[in-house]
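Note to self: keep these together.
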Amino acid sequence: MRYRTYVYNIESNNAIYNNQKNAFCAQLHMPLHIVQLILRKLVLTMMRVMDRRILKSQEAIKTAFIDLMSEKNFNEITIQDISDRANVGRRTIYHHYLDKFDLLDKLIEEHINELRKICESSSDLGFIASNLIIFEYFEQYFLFFSIMLSSSASPTFRNRLLEFIIEQLKNDVDITQGINKGLNKDVILKFFGTAIVGLVESYVTNGVPESPKVVAEQVGILLERNL
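Structure:
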């Protein structure tokens, strides 16, 4: 008995919904499929607007965070500081990030992923050409890298950058033949990885008396000679 009542209620509600839907279409003097198409486009437009707002909020939060890190120690920065600088509510920040540590991790990961995409897209190029693209990225986001390599977040970022560089170089190291035959692969990777991180750190924090193009070319030449 309960089952029949439940089914009846569903059918009744569906009938009411269909009647309302047909009445709405009649008022607009449009067939149902046209109304559905218009509503679908309206929903998609609203979603795009919301996506742009979300991206705008996230960019404001990240920009504010980087600016604050250029002014004070990471440990001194509060969520309220970020909220005030980004002109967004604390709830908005917590909607995207757990805390300032999560924000830092996601910001680092975002740039590491961009560097990874650059390496993947330039995998068919030689060391010199691919290095040039990477150093141009360093130059484009100079403020971010200079802060990450000169602030209290430096150890964390240096380790992530070193892991990334070693990850990119490991397939180019051959210890079965050539000048590296018989050497320890881990030693080679850490040697060149550490050297490159040190060069990047010097470039973005102290400046190098050469353009990014010259630095990229010379690093590429050294890698081609030794890997």
